[in-house]
Amino acid sequence: MALQFKRVLLKISGEALKGNEDIYDKDKLGDVARQVIKLAEEGLQVGIVIGGGNIWRGKLAGTLELHRIEADYMGMLATIMNALAFEATLKKMGFSKVKVYSSLEIKTVTTAYNYRDAREKLDEGYVVIFAGGTGYSYFTTDTGACIRGIEIQADALLMAKNGTKGVYDSDPNANPNAKFLDSLTHSDLVVQNLQVMDSTAATLSRDGNLEIVVFDMNGKDNIIKIAHGDLEATYIK
Ligand code: UDP
User: Fold this and answer.
1) At the N or C end, where does the chain have fewer CB atoms within 10 A?
2) Contacts of 130 by beta carbon, 8 Å cutoff, 6+ apart
3) 200 annotated ligand binder
4) Where does this protein hold ATP (predicted)?
5) pLDDT in tens, 206-219
6) What is the pTM for the complete model shown?
């Protein structure tokens, strides 16, 4: 099957890169990188947002008796670590056309986010990593992914899940009769409060008319397959 998109924003959670004990599993990082390289070489323009949950999440604030704001900035820094880990992995595998933009300024290792530059880089065949989430506390990387997806005018946000093939009408782990939904509208997503992304991200994707494809990244070549429309998934349009 041919590529079904020209430009995508791939959202991966930090958890997807996590090892049993360590914050990273080398094989998981390498597997995502291998698939992204393959797609980029086929001509797909790939932007990526990686969460930070393998390292730190703002909601852990209470464990250190921190204010949520400090904890959220720590979470955003975690996403920058993940972006650098992914960039380094791509380069180690021989793919050097990669650019890391960050919403939080860390000049030594990232470039300040600029949507026009990012679009140009994508046109030039660079894999573009968007780190730092939205750059604001009280948001998530899902929201960051929607904003970046809209701003780079992606054909779709490929929303990778770990072990769930898409969206169900109820929690499939709790309800064996949960019904799989292969297509939805943005309004369904917002109104039915389906557990795909937080409500801010859902509303934004609707306002920006960003198509979302929710798919299971756990499976051989599933990122490659979804880019070719060759995997069961939920399409939100
Ligand atoms: N975060 C934030 N603003 C953003 C994006 C992320 O404050 O725009 C913080 C927030 O604390 C969040 C953490 O960074 O818990 C890690 O991001 P997220 O939980 O979205 O990562 P994922 O679950 O996708 O790994």
Assistant:
1) N
2) 9, 47, 48, 49, 83, 101, 102, 103, 113, 118, 144, 145, 148
3) no
4) 11-14, 53, 57, 162, 168, 171
5) 999 999 999 999 99
6) 0.97
